[in-house]
Every structure is written in structure tokens, then in C-alpha cells.
Design brief:
By secondary structure, the chain is α+β, with helices and mostly antiparallel strands. The protein has four helices and nine strands. The protein has helices spanning 7-14, 40-45, 68-79, 96-99, and strands at residues 20-22, 30-33, 53-55, 60-63, 81-88, 91-94, 125-128, 131-135, 139-146. The chain has a six-stranded mixed β-sheet with strand order 3-4-2-1-5-9. A three-stranded antiparallel β-sheet has the order 6-8-7.
């Protein structure tokens, strides 16, 4: 987590009761925080070939992305829950038909924000007269996954 991380996510990352898995996207290793246990390294590794790496200064484990699903299952089995933090980009949908519309009735997902504006900011990828899409900046999302009863 860096200084631009929202406070809620920082609190989740720094709490010590529930495991946290941080996915950072393609090409990056997973980061994981666990409640302290002297056997954490062996518990994370299980029968896998490589060893998890402990970052002493920043106090998290780094592990291969390929271990993600198995680690979620391990956390649910041992702790009953796990936080998953990962990047996402919100998608906005609209259309040139909306931008060029007259009148006040709007039935697209912009809910009238771009209605009749003729050409909103150039962030849009126009697919057809009835569909255009735009992606917001990447942010971090967090969800708590709990073991099914």
C-alpha cells in the first residue's frame, strides 16, 4: 500500500486478525499479510516447490500469483475469512445517440449526465451509434470473502 491508498484499505491491510491478499495485476507477485504464527512460511508453502518471501521491512509475504486460488481456500479453511484487495477500473457506458439527443428523456446508463452534450470529453471509445465506453482510472477494491456455512 502506498500513501495514495484510501484510509479504509490501509486499516484493512494493517489489521492483524484476518488474512489479506493483495493482487497488484499482471507481472506482480501477490502480497499477503497473516495473523502471526511461527509456522506461517510452511503453512503458506504447503507442498509447493518455491518458498514464499518475507519482506521484513514492510511486513508482508510475497508469493507467486499462481497460488492465489489455493491461498484463498487455505485462508478460508484456517481462518474462516480473507480480505482480497485488487485493482479495478470502473466502466462507464453511454452512446453518441445520447450525446446528440434532443429533449429530456434519457434511457442510457449515464442517467442524463451526457444527454444532449453533442461530444463529451475525448475519453470515450465509440463502438457504434448506440454504444460507447470509457474506463475510469485504476483504483483498489476490497472484498471480504467468508467460508460458507
Amino acid at each position: 500500500m502506498d500513501e495514495g491508498t484510501p484510509e479504509r484499505l490501509r486499516r484493512i491491510w494493517n489489521q492483524k486478525e484476518i488474512p489479506v491478499l493483495l493482487r497488484r495485476g499482471a507481472g506482480h507477485r501477490l502480497r499477503m499479510r497473516l495473523p502471526f504464527d511461527p509456522e506461517n512460511r510452511a503453512w503458506i508453502r504447503q507442498e509447493r516447490r518455491s518458498n514464499p518471501e518475507w519482506d521484513q521491512q514492510r511486513r508482508f509475504w510475497e508469493i507467486p500469483q499462481a497460488w492465489f486460488n489455493a491461498l484463498v481456500a487455505q485462508c478460508l479453511e484456517k481462518y474462516g475469512k480473507v480480505y482480497i484487495v485488487q485493482p479495478y477500473r470502473e466502466q462507464e457506458k453511454c452512446a453518441p445517440a445520447c450525446w446528440n439527443a434532443t429533449g429530456d428523456e434519457c434511457q442510457c446508463s449515464c442517467m442524463g449526465e451526457h444527454h444532449g452534450m453533442h461530444s463529451p470529453a475525448g475519453k470515450w471509445k465509440v463502438v457504434s451509434d448506440t454504444f460507447a465506453t470509457s474506463w475510469a482510472d485504476q483504483e483498489l477494491a476490497c472484498r471480504l470473502v467468508e467460508r460458507k456455512a
